[in-house]
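Extended Data, record Amidase
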Amino acid sequence: MVFIYKNYDGLGLAELIHSKEVSIEEIREAAIQEIEKKNPALNAVIHKMYDSTPSHKDGKFAGVPILTKNISQESKGEPMTAGSKILQDYKAAYDSEFVKQVKETGVSILGQTNVPEFALMGITEPEFHGASRNPWNVDHTPGGSSGGSAAAVASGMVPIAGANDGGGSIRIPAAFCGLFGMKPTRGRTPIGPVRGRSWQGASVDHILSRTVRDSAAMLDTYTFDRANAFIAPPFEESYLTASQTPINQSLKIAFTTNSPLDTDVDRECKEAVHKTIKLLESMGHHIEEKEAPIDGKKLANSYFMMYFAEVSSTLREIEEMIGRKVKYTDVEPTTWILGLLGKAVTAEEFLISLKFWDEVAIAMENFHDDYDLYITPTTAYPPSKIGELDQTNMEKMLIRVVGGLSLGGVLKKTGFVEQVATKSLERTPFTQLANLTGQPAMTLPMHITKDGLPCGVQVMARRGREDLLYQLAGELEQSPNWIDVKKNPTY
C-alpha cells in the first residue's frame, strides 16, 4: 500500500499497525521526518525525544507518535522548562500522572512542544525558546498556551499532542490552527502525582487533535487519579461511541456573539457562529440568542486574582528548587509584574474570588436547566501577527520602573488590575468562563477568514456532559463547514 503518514489520525495509524499494514518503526520514522522538515519554520517542538519507545504494544494508540506540552506534562529525566530560562537546567524527577496514563495507551512520545513562559499567554512567543508560528500563515501566532502543540498537529508532524487549558489554552490554539479542542470537566483528567489541583482547578490536561474521535478515544482511557482534588460526574459509557452516535432529539441551544467584557468582536468571529447556528437550525435544533447570566468583567477580575497569586506561588516554588531568590532578570518582565501583583493580593480578596467561581458555577448549572448548550465565538479576533501584542514603549517603561522597585501594591491601587484584565482578555474573552465553572467546553473548526486563517466556535455544556459535546462535534465534523486542516500551506 502507499502510506502517507500525515493523512491519518491517531486511531487510523493504530489500526494500520494492528493490521500489520505498516510497522511502528515506519510510522515513527515518518513522524520524525515531518518534524525535522517542518519544525525549523514553525518552532513547535523545543525538545526532541527520538530515543523513546512505545511502552505498551496493545494499547488503543499503540505506536502512535505524539508530543507532550512543556509544562505540567513531565517525563522523568527530561527537561521541563515551562518556557522559562530560569528552569533551563531542570529535569523532571518523575512522570506526571497524565504522561503516565497516556503512555499506557501505547503512544510513542517524540518530544515536547513550545509554550509561553509558565503558560501565561494566549500566544506562544517566549523569550527563551522563541515564537511558535501558525501553519496556516507563519507570520501569525498559533495561539497559546498550547501553541506549539497546535502548530505540530495542524502541520502534520503528529496526529495528537498533549495540551492543557487554564483559561482557554486548548481551545484558543485549536481555534487558531483549525483543530478540534476539548477542555474536559474539572476532575475528569489526571493531574498527579504531586499536584492535586492546577490553578485552583481551573486548569485541566487533555490533547489537541485533528479529528473528534481521537480526542474522544483518549478521554476514554483516563482512569481515576487519587491525587486529584476534584472528581467529575461519572460517565460509564464511551466518549468514542458518543462521538459516532447521532443526536436523536432537538436540543435547545443559547448563543451570543457579544463579548462578556463589552469589547469588540471581529466580524469574522461573529460570522463563524452565525454559520454554525444556521447549520444547527437546519438540523432541527431550537436556537435562541441569549447571553449567560454572568458579570463578565467581575469574572475577568476574579480570574486574574487567581492568575496573580498562582504566578507569585510559582516563583516561590522555583526559589525552593534553585536554592536562591528569583530576580527580576530571571523571568520575563510581564511574569515579574504578575508575581508582584500576586504578592499584593490579600487572603480575603483571594477567597472572595474563589467564592465567586462557585456562584458562577451555580448560575451556569441553572442556565443549563433551560439550555442544553451555550455557543459563543472561541476568540474575539482571528490570530494576531507575531509580535503584534508586544508591550508598547510606555508599558515597557512602566514595567521596568515597577519591576525594579517591586511596587506591586502601589500598582494594584491604581486600577491596573482591571486594565490588565481587560487588555489581556479583549482578544480572548469567551474561554475563561468554563475554566472557573469547571464545565466542559470545546472549539469547533467551522470557518476560514477572508485572509485564510481558521476561526473557531466554542460550545459549552453542563458539567459532566462531554458526551453531548462529542455527539454534536461528531455530526458537525461531517458537514461542509468543518475545516479540512490538510489544506493549510505547510501540511
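Summary. Residues 296-370+390-425 form one domain.
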